[in-house]
Design brief:
By secondary structure, the protein is an alpha+beta fold. About 60% of the residues lie in helices and about 15% in strands. Among the domains are: about 10-45, no CATH class; about 75-125. It is elongated, with a radius of gyration of 49 Å.
Length: about 160
């Protein structure tokens, strides 16, 4: 092991090992190393595998036919699971499309109702505007000249009010 203090290789000596006693098998060890050249101390955390004895279980003979039957059943089960997943995905997509169409339908109906209301207002408004114009033309004045005359009158009234003490 290399010393992190001086960089010398293979001079670290194992001084102490502290084992965790919280488990039945010792898994974690704290190892303390000291460099023989510079006396630098390093602490390392080491995970140890417990020694598990190898046991041989008895072999039970199984016929090939039984294995193939289980394998075929498993293949059918897989096919059913995939089909179920696909059908759910298709159902989710169809619901999303239906919700989108319903949203657009609501928006179109809202726009159509607003258009109908505006058309109704437009049908009522021209008749009143035409009446007002026809009345002003009957008097011999156009609407623009009438508004210009009223502006002149307002201006002359202001000037007269300023001149008065």
């Amino acid at each position: 092991m290399r010393c992190l203090g001086c960089g010398v290789d293979n001079k670290m000596l194992l001084m102490d090992v502290l084992r965790g006693d919280t488990m039945k098998l010792t898994v974690i060890e704290h190892q303390i190393y000291m460099c023989s050249a510079c006396r630098h101390i390093a602490r390392r955390l080491v995970f140890r595998r417990g020694e598990v004895p190898i046991t041989h279980s008895p072999v039970t003979p199984i016929s090939v036919d039984t294995l193939w039957k289980e394998r075929i059943a498993a293949r059918g089960t897989w096919r059913n699971a995939v089909e179920k997943l696909r059908s759910r995905q298709i159902d989710i997509k169809e619901r999303a499309v239906a919700a989108k169409i319903a949203g657009w339908t609501k928006a179109v109906e809202k726009v159509r109702s607003k258009q109908a209301a505006l058309a109704e207002q437009a049908a009522c408004a021209p008749s009143t505007a035409l009446r007002a114009r026809s009345q002003t033309f009957e008097r011999g004045r156009s609407p623009t000249s009438q508004s210009a005359n009223t502006l002149r009158q307002v201006e002359t009234e202001r000037v007269r009010s300023r001149d008065r003490p």
